[in-house]
């Protein structure tokens, strides 16, 4: 036997024994890139005639009573979807009202060797392709999008067992992975009462643990120290239960702290904001959340987290809507903590109506309605010192809000004055809470995340220390210098401030939630370049 013949027989032997566990594919239909996940929606039996094409795009139509209804369906799909197009119209499957095959018909088919396929595929685009064992199967096509903002670590896809897979496709790119998104057409058939977020594409800050995925929390050592997560937290599973799709994990400031792009982003490169000259400081810590939602029109919502501004700041710098909800608005189980008394799960959108729909569905039982609007607008004295350009935007907006609410505006409102007048604490607020935030976050995170990471990393790496970006290193050192007594004292100060707020500042009201709305400029409207070098923390 020749050498080549031996090799061939070896290969054939291997082929007979090898079991390919799964196959995922990148394919082009005309010039558009798509991704087929490993799991088909449906696999045909082994006696089905083989398909000769590698992949056959097709469309299921359920309403084909009139030419006009087909035309309007196609027009609607083309308007809402970036996947369905004429390439999927070359093969059409017409699916009538779903009826069960009666037993005698089933047995007639069976005796005639006919395989009946009782699968109620919803209307929309699909791809017929061979599965891992060569059988014909039906797949949902995912569209692959380039991400010029470099917001993502990876693109994700939910498997039927509830764990996440990484989308394995890549195409020519300058660094960011391509992001796969499912068709919006399949969501149109879902009942909006049960699936209010059907078709929503959501990016996830890489501190929400996702079953099957390794979490980075923005740190390379953390990523390489811990295994893939075995649980997805309730904040994310609620979204998938409501019909939303998690498209990928976004970049973040390490462990949800604060960093500047050029000074501090050592482990990973900071994403790009599309605003201004394209070189604005993108802020954080929900950095990729802000840049992805501002840049990518195929994305609907970004999940972030806000402890001390981590959603509000990227929202303001990227020109989108963002929220820090009340602490406890939604469970933060299986989310990397910074401070449990201050951490919140927030999100960002470009569209205010979609912003409202998403919040009502996500915060669900924590979401409350009141019969009246707050009667007073407390307009912070800090508006005096914003840039003139920002004043031109802020001032007319504040006036519109006041008119809409029918509220009184209290200008130049000072929290310090009100604190002095009503707290009874006898110490300036800025002095009283000077180290409250820093102690609460740094002591807690050093104790519960930092210290265990140093130990676990050392155990795996011959006693060496993990690399931590300068800002976080500085904060953790500070946290390490605080003891449990200092932490307890600052917890009391936070609670004192909260009590004062409820009674004297954002006074509670059964009618309108709070009597007052406090407006403050989180951004002074000045240019801040990502090229700036800063001195050490
Ligand atoms: C389909 O192709 C596979 C592999 O080539 C072969 O084993 C199988 O018999 C074919 N099935 C039919 C129904 O022709
Ligand atoms: C089809 O059969 C299933 C299972 O027997 C039953 O639940 C369903 O209601 C039937 N559907 C119709 C349209 O008769
Ligand atoms: C016919 O029924 C038998 C017994 O239920 C089953 O094993 C077989 O797969 C069926 N054949 C087809 C073609 O559906
Ligand atoms: C959606 O579900 C609700 C509640 O179960 C039901 O009342 C309604 O008829 C459903 N709508 C459609 C279009 O099926
Ligand atoms: C999930 O992971 C955690 C942390 O690594 C571990 O303590 C727990 O036993 C795991 N649970 C299961 C079901 O594997
Ligand atoms: C706020 O204070 C500034 C200067 O401190 C003053 O010019 C401005 O008129 C005040 N605005 C209101 C609404 O009182
Ligand atoms: C508040 O009171 C402190 C003394 O407790 C005083 O030093 C400070 O100037 C006052 N601040 C304001 C804004 O009135
Ligand atoms: C806050 O604490 C820092 C560090 O101890 C100190 O340098 C600063 O002066 C303090 N600021 C106030 C307003 O008390
Ligand atoms: C805050 O108010 C609650 C409820 O009235 C009270 O139980 C608690 O002791 C107060 N905390 C502080 C630090 O004053």
Automatic annotation (TrEMBL):
Presence of the UniProt keyword Endoplasmic reticulum in the record: no
Gene3D superfamilies per the UniProt record, alphabetical: Amidase signature (AS) domain
Signal peptide (from-to): 1-18
Keyword Translocase attached: no
Protein keywords: Signal
Record domain Amidase: where: 189-351
PANTHER family: AMIDASE 1 (PTHR46310:SF7)
This protein's name: Amidase domain-containing protein
Species in which this protein is naturally found: Marasmiellus scandens
């Amino acid at each position: 036997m020749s050498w080549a013949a031996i090799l061939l027989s070896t290969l054939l032997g291997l082929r007979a024994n090898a079991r390919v566990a799964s196959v995922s594919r990148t394919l082009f239909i005309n010039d558009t890139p798509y991704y087929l996940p490993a799991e088909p929606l449906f696999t045909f039996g082994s006696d089905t005639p083989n398909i000769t094409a590698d992949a056959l795009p097709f469309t299921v139509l359920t309403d084909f009573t009139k030419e006009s209804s087909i035309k309007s369906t196609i027009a609607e799909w083309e308007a809402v979807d970036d996947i369905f197009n004429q390439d999927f119209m070359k093969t059409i499957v017409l699916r009538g009202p779903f009826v069960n095959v009666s037993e005698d018909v089933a047995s007639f088919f069976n005796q005639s060797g006919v395989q009946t396929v009782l699968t109620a595929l919803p209307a929309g685009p699909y791809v017929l392709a061979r599965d891992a064992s060569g059988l014909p199967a039906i797949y949902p096509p995912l569209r692959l999008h380039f991400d010029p903002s470099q917001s993502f670590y990876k693109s994700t896809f939910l498997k039927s067992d509830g764990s996440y897979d990484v989308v394995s496709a890549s195409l020519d790119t300058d660094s960011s992975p391509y992001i796969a998104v499912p068709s919006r057409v399949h969501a149109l058939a879902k009942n909006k009462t049960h699936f209010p977020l059907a078709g929503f594409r959501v990016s996830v800050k890489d501190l929400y643990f996702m079953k099957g995925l390794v979490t980075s929390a923005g740190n390379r050592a953390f990523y390489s120290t811990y295994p893939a997560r075995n649980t997805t937290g309730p904040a994310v599973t609620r979204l998938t239960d409501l019909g939303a799709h998690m498209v990928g994990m976004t970049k973040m400031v390490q462990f949800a702290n604060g960093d500047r792009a050029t000074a501090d982003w050592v482990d990973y490169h900071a994403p790009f904001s599309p605003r201004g000259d394209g070189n604005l400081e993108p802020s954080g810590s929900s950095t990729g959340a802000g840049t992805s939602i501002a840049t990518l029109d195929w994305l609907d919502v970004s999940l972030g987290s806000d402890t001390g501004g981590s959603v509000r700041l990227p929202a303001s710098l990227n020109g989108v809507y963002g929220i820090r909800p009340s602490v406890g608005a939604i469970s933060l189980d299986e989310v990397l903590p910074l401070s449990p008394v201050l951490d919140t799960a927030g999100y960002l959108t470009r569209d205010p109506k979609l912003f409202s729909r998403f919040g009502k569905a996500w915060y669900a039982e924590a979401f409350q309605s009141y019969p009246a609007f707050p009667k007073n607008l407390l307009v912070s004295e800090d508006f005096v010192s914003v840039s003139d350009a920002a004043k031109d935007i802020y001032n007319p907006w504040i006036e519109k809000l006041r008119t809409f609410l029918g509220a009184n505006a209290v200008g130049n409102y000072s929290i310090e004055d009100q604190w002095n007048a009503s707290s009874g604490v006898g110490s300036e607020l800025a002095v009283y809470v000077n180290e409250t935030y820093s102690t609460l976050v740094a002591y807690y995170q050093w104790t519960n995340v930092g210290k265990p990471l140093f130990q676990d990393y050392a155990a795996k790496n011959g006693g060496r220390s993990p690399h931590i970006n300068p800002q976080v290193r500085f904060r953790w050192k500070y946290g390490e210098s605080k003891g449990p007594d200092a932490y307890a004292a600052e917890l009391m100060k936070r609670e004192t401030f909260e009590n004062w707020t409820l009674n004297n500042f954002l006074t509670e009201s059964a009618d309108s939630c709070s009597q007052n709305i406090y407006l403050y400029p989180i951004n002074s409207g000045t240019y801040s370049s990502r090229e700036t070098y800063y001195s050490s923390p």
